Records
---
Amino acid sequence: MPSFDIVSEVDKQELDNAINQARKELATRFDFKGIAAEILPEKDKITLTADDAAHLHGLREILIGKLSKRGVDLRNIEQDEPAISSVGHARQELKIRQGLEGNKAKEIIQAIKSQGFKVQSQLQDRQIRVAGKKRDELQAVIQFVRSRDFGVATSFKNFRD
């Protein structure tokens, strides 16, 4: 039976490339000379630190610009509120969402079911497996999911007959 998976992933290599480009721009920008500003990537988040809120805002704009130019979908980047200390140091975390969380996955599954497609969809390991008897029906599901905005980046993989 033909099937495919609906996933929500951020390409790690593109993310790494965008961070490296932002670091290079940070090193050459005149308004960041002598300022302690850093971009610290971790497993599932990026921490931005700067001397004050204005430089933190500029740093975040640089990084977001590089991420969008590299094709990283910004719907999977969740920005926390900046934490500004009494001394003036500013810090902000950008969380990277990988996979579909329970509520978003259920919303997508319900939307597919409400359209009356003759397919089975189930949540498996932070991705949705959609299976049906006809390829045309699966392609219609792909077109439907692409046409709707669920608040997360959706992509499709493992299309098999």
---
Amino acid sequence: MASAALLVVGLLGLVPGAVRSACAQEAPGVTNSSAGQVLNAYLDYREVSYSFDTWSLPITTRSSAFTKEPALSRSQVTRGLLKLGGGGSNEMAFAWDRAAGKLYLDLNRNLDLADDSAGVFSSLGGARESYQAFTNIPLPFQTPAGSHQALVDLSFFDYGRLNCNAAMRSFWQGKVTLEGQEWQVGLLGTPEEQRSSLETGNLLLRPWSERSKPFSLHSGALEAFPFSRKLFFGSQAYQVQCANEGQGDAAKVRVQFTEQKPSLGEVKITGVNVQRVTLEGGPYMVVIDRPEATVRVPVGSYKSSKVCLRKGSAEAHLDQRTQFSAAGRITVNDTKPAVLTAGGPLTNSVSVIRQGRKLSLNYQLVGAGGAYQLVNQDRSHPPEFTVYQGDQKVASGKFEFG
């Protein structure tokens, strides 16, 4: 296949918890001489039909039966404790009856698996020996502020070693008006994170009109980001605090945004079609939507930057696995503009490596700053390629995800 020419056709076109919150209480008497207007958002516990975060739930197994158990199968029963963090008060006994496709949870934590009628769950797809998934589990846990709850899906699998994955399906959400626009604000965190404070999780901040749209912490769309008490959003800096706010029998969380006035410097963004930029690991968590070519942000050194692009319904983000410039440090001062190399236009690119009589083709979506990945990529329609030798078509095919 020497001197073979490559043409790529048909490639993807893109742009050229009533429960008590574990939220930290505000410190009394704290003031800030540069503080300005105070805005409050009141959040309610919300459950959704999709998961937005998944984590590995620590477990320990036991060989003996619990003191009281329901009628279980004679074989293929695994017993143990789910560890939600914070010591013994947040350990929960369970029995996984693989033969029956059942999961029994000790919701009231009295080590009696026979008296929790609400703690019996059936596996999706029936009984399978090595893997079973259980949905819509209201998982109670203890925090310094009282009892709390999270809605999760649990997946148990044992391929020589027992593991449990939990998928989060609940959070605290409300509405806040910032810079004249309504936003959905949400506090996100796993039970282990919420055990001490919701402020250790993530903050969801997106247009209120998009509040019903599913989101994920791992999609690259940057709708949510690590919670920080110092937030720069749009063109305004805020001190962010949250507190328990019970109203009658209902539990709420109050998130308070207090305007700040830090020193600002310029950042030049080289690309186009940028939907959201975040600068992390600096004096503020910086979040800017649809930035101009030059933006002003708090001065200081930031450990990493992320970017999401959007044009029409297509979205893409920098692939952190293959690029390093936008994931590196950026320093902003008040004398010289910093440069962030990120954005479109994006180009469909294929690298070709000859391996004996074979050609290895690797696809990348390339823009300013490195390789990008599509958000919510439709893997049923992968990029296609055609290989020609001169005018003669010699091969064609589709790329595989990986």
---
Amino acid sequence: MRKLKNKELNRLNIEAFKEAKKTPLIVVLDNIRSLNNIGSVFRTSDAFAIEKIYLCGITATPPNKEIHKTALGATDSVVWEYVEDTVSLVKKLQEKGVKVLAIEQAENSVKLQNFIIEENQKYAVIMGNEVKGVQQEVINVSDYCVEIPQYGTKHSLNISVTTGVVLWDLFKKFRF
């Protein structure tokens, strides 16, 4: 085996990426504190051709050198928008027919591996604050709570890890 050089990866340029077919997923960042986490979510969203990222509440927005450190240019390729209030955003997305998944440990949550996507359905996944998680008011208006099962002693994963796990799982369900 030989490690591939960057030029051998045949990656799209930004213009081609913007025109390419997207995975029918939207990421909503609900009050994310860490600029590194925000940048990481941009980079992961680029990797899985996510349609759009919404940055809500206290979540910082590009341009920002700390976000750029982990995004590595993905703030230029992934479409994003700032919306102050997450609850109003969720309601607007639902009015457009988007099913909203709060990624949270909650009563009656669906385990990620058991979540079945509907054909021709667009989804938004909400990632919550590093300490408090997704706001209860946001959970109240979401269509589903989806949970990543965990079997160790800790009760949560870092938001950038959570985003990677969730997007990969949903991406596979859409694409394969």
---
Amino acid sequence: MAKQVNIETEFITLGQFLKLADVIQSGGMAKWFLGEYEIFVNNEPENRRGKKLRDGDVVYIPNFGTYIVKN
């Protein structure tokens, strides 16, 4: 079951998203987390913390879960 994460803007960066979804405790951890863990955005591997996520995008992190961006 995917967890829905609501954003109030047109897009959110992957780094900001990880914090909003409670995957990491602070934005400063994003670079480290992206280097240590596999992350998939819409079934494509992604490791750029500046990647823009928009309404309907699906973020999958093995062993953490699946998240859907909702605007």
